[in-house]
Amino acid sequence: MQPGLTGISETMLWTLHNRASEAARPDGCLRDPMCLHIYRALHYDYERHFGHADGSHGVRSQLFDEHLRIFLAAHPRAAIVNLGEGLETQRYRIDAPEALWISVDVPEALAIRERFIQPDARHLHVRASALDTAAWFGAVPPGRPCFITAQGLFMYFSEEEMARFARALAQRFPGAILMFDYISRSLSRRTLSKHGWMKTPYYRTPPMPWGVNRDELEPLFSRWLGQPVRVHNVTFVFPRGPLHWFIPMSEHYLPWLANHFPGVCWLQLPQEGSSGQEPVST
Known about the structure:
Elements: H1 7-23, H2 33-41, H3 46-50, H4 56-74, E1 79-83, H5 90-93, E2 100-105, H6 107-113, E3 123-127, H7 133-136, E4 146-150, H8 159-172, E5 177-182, H9 185-192, E6 198-200, E7 203-204, H10 214-225, E8 231-234, H11 242-253, H12 255-258, E9 263-268
Parallel strand pairs: 1-2, 1-4, 2-3, 4-5
Antiparallel strand pairs: 5-9, 6-7, 8-9
């Protein structure tokens, strides 16, 4: 089965490549038979485009899973909104029989997803850009605790789009948890340069306009949302190899260096009249 994807949508095959490499390992950080099924069913030269698989996206998914499981333990009937979900198979890794899952992605991405993963009463698909808030805000039932995720998405927005989007989320979903990954300013500049970020001689990543360093996140979101907002770093721990030790040690002993790493974080969108400083349990 040929995926026939280009541009930003094609990046979901990059993340699939890396997640599947972890799922296939006996010592991998993910157990994900559905991921492996999709990976093997698509006729695509992953190695040629993306090079040798690494554990980065498997670790990223594991981090999101861990935080979502904790949230669901406290809020089993939550609404889980996965923005730009692509071929992520989180719903198969997490047992949440009372939750409502909402996958928001552009039509070409959901068309590939639905070759393998069908929506139903508890798993909704919304064909829209995450930025098209009018298209998906109404799919989230009012009154449910809400956990919003964005894996491999926000870096493709401009900073102005991110600011407007953050304000819209805070207005519509006060108190919700927003968890996302981000890239550094230097990596963003690389993707925007004349030669771009070439993963291999055959694949250039799409431009990633929004780069931000870790120590900028809290003041940035606080300014966007008009009140203090606490942004929580999630340490990116590889399951093996030098990075397993290097990243945690850098965060502890070399924070100035860690500020320039790509990362994962979460925050609670402020509630009306709150300071945004006391997040709900995750």
